[in-house]
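Researcher: Next sequence.
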Amino acid sequence: MKKLTIFLLLVVLLSTACSQTSKILEEPPLESVDDVMEQAPTVPETEDHILLTMEASLADGRTLMLEAFGKRIDEYNWGVREVRVYDGEDLLQTVFAREAIEPEWDHGDGGLVEDFYDYTTCWSPEETMEVLDLNFDGNTDFGLFGWSPNNTIPYYYWQWDGERYQFAFTMLGAEVHPETGEVSSEYKVGGDGILYQWDYYRPDDEGNLYLVRQERERYGFPNLDSDRGGALETWIPREDVVIRPRYTAEQGEDKLVLIRREIPVYEVHTDNTVSHFTEIWELRDGYLQMTSREEYVYSEA
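Model: Next structure:
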């Protein structure tokens, strides 16, 4: 009887151990880090998050990291509210978009109180920010896509002053030309017979840009051979006048002087034949004079 009792106890113990082993084997495996990350909640597009990250190298050898924070502001557009500037792991500066929006759009009537004006407007996160060296000092500057225009894209630009970024200006269609040390701005005007306009800037000793010349494509002249385009004009600032970059295309005729005009023209003769010429007009002795008139022959197609 004693042997039977011992045998039954052994059977119970073995059954319990097997049951525990089965439970251990049936435990689900631990989730991988990737699985956990995939299940982590994502920030909604309509809440502020990182839209774009770009590097900005400096002349002293450092490379800053620029993080554009913003959100989707409507069905078609994204907006940047701030740019966080990191030097390694240290937050060096926070640049707010309103630093540029207020001076550009506030007319002193208190009309920019809505939160909407805290954000830029751009059609994709990938184009919200760009980096470039605007004054050729070896320090990377950056711009924020300002708003969605009808033609040329405007950017709000900040320049590195040696310690931090400062808002500098708004410019349309900016392009740097290291070979000439110039920055150009191209945009469509559409008024006063002007179709397109190009502004060319250079940095002064302090790295601030100033206008050196302006080129215009103008129409509306008599006998203009418009098949070859409009007249190309070159304007420069008057003596002792300094013009800084600005959003508006109206630099002021009183601040500029027309020094050259190249105009394609045609001439109808009495026998109804037509000749074509290219006239060059230049500023001489205080007024514009024609200095060249060469015949132009269309090549046969």
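Model: Confidence is low (pLDDT under 50) at residues 1-26. The longest strand covers residues 256-268.
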